[in-house]
Design a protein that fits this description.
Elements (H helix, E strand, L loop, with lengths): L1 E6 L7 H12 L8 E3 L13 H7 L7 H13 L2 E10 L2 E10 L2 E7 L7 H4 L10 E3 L2 E5 L8 H9 L4 E5 L6 H13 L2 E5 L2 E4 L6 E4 L3 E3 L5 E4 L6 E6 L27
The structure holds acetamide.
Length: 263
């Protein structure tokens, strides 16, 4: 199975420009991928400074133009896409990801661990953590800061996730290192799709750390990118490598857990 990411530098508020860039890059004739992961808020940029701005840039999933554009790319390229975008559902806005494939919309996930000022503008996600079936492979989706709560990825792993598709807008570089541990402790693949660049929004400005990467269940970095460059990386993996949770003859990552000591 070919899994990959597109790291780039979304322009804040320029939805059309961002979607067009993704559409052109992913529809390159040479690109061959089964599961492509895009960054968090790939279509709008990250650093919202008012509820009004969030309302104006958020969309319904799957009816909105962003999910519809991704559905058309997925169909044309016969691939699956996981992408972060701000979602409007009734009167609430969520930091969401949509999952689409060649046959259309599949599912969405809404970030459950909101980071910093996201708490001013977004509602905590309402969807339980469950992997999705993509080409007979179980794919779990998390969004950025979800990484720092190990229970989130563990829950997906315990429910059978073999790959974690992880759209991010990381402002620190901890997760590029920590994802190696997350992959080892859960024995699964991680596609960390980060963005790069600086969003100048006055006193709320942020730089993003790039360095997207794909990690194997044994903590090997299968692909990685620099801190400030547009880049698509795709690697060929065998998802079944995530199935065997034995560490050695005596130890198993899941069977050796001691939940009664964890309360
Ligand atoms: C983050 O959750 N975007 C840091």
């Amino acid at each position: 199975m070919k899994i990959g990411y597109f790291q780039f530098n979304p322009v804040f508020g320029a939805k059309y420009t961002n979607i067009k860039k993704v559409s052109q890059k992913l529809q390159d004739k040479m690109l061959n991928c089964d599961l492509m992961v895009l960054p968090e808020f790939f279509n709008t940029g990250y650093n919202f400074i008012s509820k009004k701005e969030v309302q104006n840039l958020s969309e319904k999933i799957p009816e909105g133009e962003t999910t519809q554009a991704l559905m058309s790319i997925a169909k044309n390229k016969n691939m699956f896409i996981v992408a972060g975008l701000p979602e409007k559902e009734k009167n609430y806005c969520f930091n969401s990801a949509c999952i689409v494939g060649p046959d259309g919309f599949i599912a969405k996930y809404q970030k459950i661990h909101l980071f910093f000022r996201e708490k001013l503008f977004f509602t905590t996600g309402k969807i339980k953590l469950n992997p999705i079936d993509i080409k007979k492979t179980k794919v779990g989706v998390l969004i950025c800061f979800d990484w720092i709560f190990p229970e989130a990825m563990r829950t997906l792993a315990l429910k059978g996730a073999q790959i974690i598709a992880h759209p991010t807008n990381l402002v620190l570089s901890f997760y590029q290192s920590a994802s190696i541990t997350r992959a080892i402790e859960n024995r699964l693949f991680i596609v960390l799709a980060n963005r790069w660049g600086y969003e100048n929004r006055g006193k709320n400005s942020f730089s993003f750390t790039g360095k997207s990467q794909i990690v194997s269940p044994f903590g090997e970095i299968l692909a990685c990118s620099p801190s400030a460059k547009d880049e698509i990386k795709i690697v060929n993996i065998d998802p079944s490598k995530a199935n065997d949770k034995n560490i050695n003859k005596y130890n198993n990552l899941f069977k050796d857990r001691k939940p009664k000591f964890y309360v």
